[in-house]
């Protein structure tokens, strides 16, 4: 049953493997280009982009960061745990979901720009379909995958979390 639902969503939404884990497809890219954008961005950017993003069972979104804020919104399936390593505020565990049973879940979660974060399905027997929206619009030049050794040095108190997330995708710490 679960694989039928995932296969249906992969086909219906045209999902492809994402380099940080899971599956995605771009669902929206605005047509307008920002003429005067912040200098942290390389090249032209559109105003906003949005993707569908699917995680299943043991898939994770590995620790990465973006040059812009990213708004996550939940569509269907298990809640998602988002692990945020904020440079000033430290670790935050946010739960994204839309079930009445999960009182801690938020319908939307914002991950601030230049903040390391990872995500995983809360119920490891299920999947989750979410959406991610960025403004200015996403470009792969805005995306940085974490080096697990450097991230663990930066956040030594969260080494086991970083190791668990990164080992899921065969990135091990020395």
TrEMBL record:
InterPro entries: Cupin_DUF985, RmlC-like_jellyroll, RmlC_Cupin_sf, YML079W-like
SUPFAM superfamilies reported in the protein's UniProt record: RmlC-like cupins
Domain DUF985: 8-146
Domain of life of the native organism: Bacteria
Matches recorded under CDD domains: cupin_YML079wp
Name of the protein described by the UniProt record: DUF985 domain-containing protein
Native source organism of the sequence: Vibrio tetraodonis subsp. pristinus
């Amino acid at each position: 049953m679960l694989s039928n639902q995932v296969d249906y969503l992969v086909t219906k939404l045209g999902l492809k493997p994402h380099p940080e884990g899971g599956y995605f497809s771009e669902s929206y890219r605005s047509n307008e280009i920002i003429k005067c954008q912040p200098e942290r961005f390389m090249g032209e950017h559109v105003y906003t982009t949005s993707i569908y993003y699917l995680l299943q069972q043991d898939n994770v979104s590995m620790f990465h960061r973006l040059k812009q804020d990213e708004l996550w919104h939940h569509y269907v399936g298990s809640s998602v745990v988002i692990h945020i390593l904020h440079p000033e505020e430290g670790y935050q565990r946010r739960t994204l979901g839309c079930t009445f049973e999960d009182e801690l879940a938020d319908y939307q979660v914002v991950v601030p720009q230049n903040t390391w974060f990872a995500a995983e399905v809360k119920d490891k027997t299920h999947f989750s379909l979410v959406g991610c929206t960025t403004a200015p619009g996403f470009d792969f030049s805005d995306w940085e995958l974490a080096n697990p050794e450097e991230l663990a040095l930066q956040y030594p108190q969260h080494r086991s979390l970083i190791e668990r997330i990164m080992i899921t995708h065969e990135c091990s710490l020395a």
